[in-house]
Structures are given as C-alpha cells and as structure tokens.
Amino acid sequence: MLLPICNSACSGKSSSQAGKADTVVVEPMYKLYPTTNNWNFLKLNTADGRIWIVQYAINDDSKRFAVALNKTSLLPSGTRPSAGRFALIPTSNIWNFILLDQVDGRQWQVQWGLKEEDAMVLPIPQSD
Question: What is the pTM of this model?
C-alpha cells in the first residue's frame, strides 16, 4: 500500500501526474504534401524551404524519382534553420501551392510540373 505513494512522492510528481510520460513535440524536418496527380508528391524541408518533386511508380523503375524544385535555402541571410518554419498550402489550381514562412510571413508561389520549364518558386511581394 505504501509503495505507490512513495513512488509518486519520491519522484516529485503529484498523484495526478504519476504514470504520465513527459511529452516532447518534435517538428519534422521533412514533410510530404500530396498533389492531385496520382503519382506525385512535394517534399518540403520545413527548416529552410527547399522543395523536391517526388514521383513513385508501381512497375516502372525509370518513372520513380525525386528532383529538386528549388535547390537554394529560402532562409534570410544569417538565420539558423529551424524545423517547422516553412509550410506548403495547396490552392485550387492543381499545379500551384503557396509556400509560407511561418516565422516572418514571407510567401512564394510554388508551381510544380513534370517539365523543368513548368516548375518554379516565385516570391509573392507583400505590400504594407
């Protein structure tokens, strides 16, 4: 009878906290965002804003690939990467997403495509 009381008292936790594990929320460094194309996803580095087009295939290895959409970090100069900083938001246009810097509010139009000339990441200016 005294053992459970001693365990919670000795640990410094109240009886209502006893048995509860400490929870640590970790933001993922990478997230996959589905497109409306059955075979393609966008992979986002949530710390620096880089994006890849990821295509999978069932039977044809030559159609399975990941290619960079933007190879350059979108962090302001001198800023350290932080997981969870960037997020992709789908639009009603199947080829476009909005990339949002959740720390400073900057945004980009992300247009993906199966041809290199169709894919781009363009800043969206913000007027005050």
Answer: 0.79
